[in-house]
Write the structure tokens for this entry.
Amino acid sequence: MKELTDAVLMSNYDKWKNYVDTYCKSRKDYININQLCDEMGEYIATAPASNMESYHCCYVGGLIEHSLNVIENILFIRKYFDMKGVADLPSIESCVFVAAFHDVGKAGDGDRPYFIPEESQWHRDKLGRLFKYNTEQTYLTHAEQTLYLFSKYCISITAKEFQAIRAHDGAWVSYNDKYNLSTLKLLSYMLQFADMQALVIEKHKD
């Protein structure tokens, strides 16, 4: 399993928070966003992005590294779409917000982490399951947990931002079957593209 030093963990969190501060500070509930970041900062900085070794960023600090990749990707996608004349592009603020927070539910519910280390050596060695779901939480998918955190911290979002985060895993999960070409908004596509590009980079980067 990849291991990040404390210095790298802190540096990655600071980069992520700088994106949030730079692009989301004008949101009317920024003070609440900042409260979420402050109170959950350690969980956000140290959470893995997944629990299986065969998945993406399955290591302490993986969530932040993945989120940074998604932010960079969605900004690139927006710039490319703008160059191609795509109409009604979502704001840069909205793009960065959904990219930065799309997986924040994986950091936990505000009181406890979403993933905890897998204690069973058999599961670690035979299945590559390095982390497991924390059963002390009320079960929610990570997208649902993200939206729960917005409610908990009184962070208002638009319907398009809600859809983008709720559907960001695309066709990989069955509960997104209701979202299709006729129902998805442009922001949702952009977040899905950015997320998938990050997965490819993370799985195939030397």
